[in-house]
Protein: Alpha-1,4 glucan phosphorylase
Amino acid sequence: MNQIFKDKQDFITQYRAMVRANTGKEFELCGSHDRFYALAELIATRARRIASENELEIENTGQKRVYYFSLEFLIGRLLDNYLLNFGIRDMVSDALKEMGTTLEELEIREPDAALGNGGLGRLAACFLASAAHEGIAFYGNGMRYEYGLFKQEIVDGRQVELADNWLKHDYPWESRRPESAVEVVFGGTSVSYEKDGRTMWRIDGGQKILAVPYDIPVVAYGGKLVNKLRVWKAEPNEDLFDLDAFNRGDYAQANAGRAEAEAISTILYPADAGEHGKILRLKQEYLFVAAGINSILRTFRKEHGSDWKLLPEYVAIHTNDTHPAMCGPELMRVLMDEEGLEWDEAWDIVTKTVSFTNHTVLPEALEKWPITTFKPLLPRLYQIIDEIARRFRESFPSDNPEWREMFQKTAILWDGEVRMANLSIVCSHSVNGVAELHTKILKEQVFKEFYELTPEKFNNKTNGVTHRRFLAEANPSYSKLITSKIGTGWLDDAMELKKLEDYVDDEDFLLAMAASKRENKERLARYIKETTGIVVDPSSVFDVQVKRFHAYKRQLLNIFKVMDIYNRLLDDPDFTVRPTTFIFSGKAAQSYYFAKEVIRLINSVADVVNSDERVNDRIKVVFIPNFRVSNAQLIYSAAEISEQISTAGQEASGTSNMKLMMNGAITLGTLDGANIEIADLAGRENVKIFGLTEPEVVALQKSGHYFSWDEYNADRDRLGRCVDELTDSTFSRLSGTFDSIRRELMDNNDHDLVLKDFHSYVQAWEELTEAYGDTLAWNRMALHNTANSGHFSSDRTIREYRDEIWHA
Ligand code: NBY
Structure:
């Protein structure tokens, strides 16, 4: 442990001094807001100091640096994380109590930084933490959005979006680095000129924007290493303030130039599956790529000079999905246009440096840009992409009888569009999926042609999550219990959780697990009461589905199950059910009508069920508004059933499945994404699997013999009734009926096979809740899950990236 304070007294003295320096007041006279900022400042100063020591060491040792380009880093709150990693959480918590406040009271003052949408953004944040833990010189490169992901409120059952002004007060962890700002050019014309007998290219004119970096320290567990997340803000590169306009009283015009530049880093696009054609989005993508590449090369030159051949030895650039796909072309541009390298030399460097992760198989999510948008905005980059595309085409094995098909599928420019996934693959030496099944689907379906051409590029890296945040921090009572048996080694090495298997027959331990879960459920029940007013029973089963709302994730299937149980409780006096609280949380993209209707349906069912005294002693439905990292931690730790019910083949990996598994929740899921690996590791007897498998889904879709009306007709009493209740008055009291959902199921033939999987799902749920009756057996299952979740620590994932992709 790197002790940043000698002892508690030392901490208190320094903390008091910081409060005085920041506010001019004594600690006792300050409110929680000032107290939080002073505490954060105190910790951040220490972190920055270690970061600059690390910087020097890396410079001296020539350690390879890994740059992770991601438009999203869903980091959430950091204070607790810093304290845990510096090994001072308990000491600080005691000290604060002595001083008359609590850590919890200060913690909640921190903005919950939501610079990401969902799994992809949170994965990037977990990677920051784990890469630091693994001792990698790892740098996040992203955007500093002024507004993060929207805040969600529920009004009459509907999702309403509000701006997330997270920078309203200062953000204590960041430091602005204006001296490292980078100029980025949009538009202009690409012109050639002769230099030393060679044709060179430059951009004339265009709009010049300044990208200003802000650095956020990333502290490794143990506190010895501190890495950096660098996020970029767009600013006008010179004072674009129009004084004449101002003096005329035209204030909007006076600030127009400034506003246009700053717009680039104003908002995070809130869609988690494609937001095509928006020029501002393309500007964001280029800005953080160009600024990041420039700053990488600046560091390289300082340390290694301009022998660019050495770049791949000292630098790895990883692109998180296709949003940073311009890394390859931009690196080409700088190496050729600014450093004077020839195409072949530059290309060799680029393809040895860049690697790429795909996160989705949904065709609508594969990013494409109209050439008519792209070319005028980035004329030189377009030229380079055109040349990459041409050379790639030329390299084609023309003896292949299927080359036409191949040619079309692998084209970078096609049908008037730039295809970012194909560009990413061609520019990268490694292409990976995020779970075994997902990678298999990439190889055999989505990128089949590329896999045939370059099989050696393709590999799998099953996702992981940081167990220090999602188990240690999120679930203090369970962590304490674990540590009491196996020591603290698991915090460093999650595989040590395996030692817990020694306790599967230890009744006292299993009962202590139940008690810890109960404590967490009470904590969540209090939160639910505060945020929704709904009173839930902590002795009921907590059944949880928390994730973005998407048709393929099938929250609709889950709420159909609830509707069915409700109907049966009303109709059938012999039907019994284990008392259950059905918990939902998550956001829908602002423009995703269907997903938002499913949210409205869940809230409408909740409204009816919770107020129906005939059933509300047995079932309750809760939609927790504004799902984000901070309340996620409360939810995961209190969960008993983990709903992972996507249509097989659609969920690339999932990561809430892993967080819930660690916390001892039992997966109720399809054989999709990482659920398959979870089932294998935990043991089939310790999860509950239902529904069609991926090959079955593919075969059924292909056969053309799926008809949702057949499902409806085959079970008018239960399934058909749920469908009908979408459009009768049963659940329409809050805000009307659900015609569009019914249309999707019946007129559009139920694309996600909700009706098809309904029966096996409800049956699986009934069997699982039946098993809940045996407390010891249930907690034994839970224990097998926690004990085998070490594999899903992002520490393991990062080691695999390091060894097999980055070679760092
Ligand atoms: O990435 C998710 C996958 O759905 C999930 O299965 C996987 O576990 C996780 C981490 O690998 N994908 C995801 O979260 N995607 C996005 O958030 C996203 C965001 C923006 C855009 C596309 C996807 N976009 O096109 O703008």
About this structure: The domain at 62-77+112-234+272-463 is CATH 3.40.50.2000 (Rossmann fold). The mean pLDDT is 96. The chain has 35 helices and 25 strands.
